[in-house]
Write a structure and sequence with these properties.
2 domains; globular; about 45% helix; 8 helices; Heat Shock Protein 90; about 290 residues; five-stranded mixed beta sheet
Length: about 290
């Protein structure tokens, strides 16, 4: 898709925010109080404040949607090509296994490219992770191991869509880049009463902590862009202190962690059976009364 076409909605939303802010600056009133004569206080009218809030929410949603499109676009053509190649190589020797891999590939792409919703459940995200891992194991065999430690209590926790799978993909990719050409990934999700603590750890080559700091601050170009996007969406969803925690060092692997609140307000869903009561026509005055 054309880059300028992708940016058009964001530019329009930003222009709307700027316009509303300018209107708010112009709409102020001056009043005298106990302070020095002529003191002025800018007061935003409730109407303008509501428009500003609506514009900010619109811009936020546009940014989230753009980041989700960016994540979906990261489904590497190489991954698709290599997965289909692995499936084709399996057909002559194990057609039943090849059929299962085709279904895994379909499940993974359907989930990754779905259009609805900024959130999913940990259970659904783990299903996508499982499909991804099975496709990678079809290529690398036992050279890659993924071990799960998941507390059943957190399977239903709502998390941002594509918040875990990109971290697993990052761990697999850098684990396989190690000198041994193999690696182990640990995916853990623990229940801490108020939060689900989710971590993805690998025993790969690791990275310079300063380099990963630059990644999280958007100063590293396209390096680890999946990790960067997940960090941004966590902060947007749960506040500035809710981003990823990265523990790493050269030659020491990498561990990426997040804390997601277990109890979140459910998104508003209109009642499909609710019907507004019919409006009654006003009574017409009768002649002669």
């Amino acid at each position: 898709m054309d880059f300028l076409t992708e940016l058009a909605p964001l530019v329009l939303a930003l222009a709307l925010v700027v316009g509303v802010i300018l209107a708010a600056v112009l709409l102020y009133r001056t009043h005298d109080d106990a302070g020095p004569a002529g003191a002025r206080e800018a007061v935003i009218s409730p109407e303008v404040r509501a428009q500003l809030s609506e514009a900010e929410e619109s811009l936020r949603r546009q940014l989230v949607e753009a980041e989700l499109r960016s994540l979906r676009a990261q489904i590497s053509p190489h991954f698709i090509y290599n997965s289909l190649n692995a499936i084709a190589a399996t057909i002559p020797t194990d057609p039943v296994r090849a059929r299962e891999l085709v279904l895994d590939f379909a499940d993974f792409t359907r989930y990754s490219l779905r259009a609805e919703g900024e959130f999913t459940t940990l259970r659904e995200e783990l299903a996508a992770v499982e499909s991804y891992v099975l496709l990678e194991k079809a290529r690398f065999g036992d050279r890659i191991q993924v071990k799960l430690q998941i507390a059943p209590e957190v399977l239903g926790v709502r998390i941002p869509f594509l918040a875990v799978q990109p971290l697993v993909e990052n761990a697999v990719r850098h684990g396989m880049d190690s000198e041994a050409g193999s690696g182990t990934v640990w995916l853990r999700a623990a229940d801490t009463a108020t939060h689900a603590e989710i971590s993805v750890e690998d025993d790969g080559q690791g990275a310079d902590p300063e380099a990963m700091r630059q990644v999280l601050h958007g100063e590293a170009g396209n390096a680890h862009i999946g990790v960067r996007n997940v960090d941004l969406r966590l902060r947007q969803a749960y506040g500035g202190a809710a981003g990823l925690v990265v523990e790493t060092a050269p030659g020491a692997g990498m561990k990426v962690s997040m804390r997601v609140p277990k109890f979140q307000p459910a998104p508003f869903q209109p009642d499909p059976f609710h019907r507004e009561p019919p409006q009654q026509e006003p009574a017409q005055p009768q002649e002669g009364t």
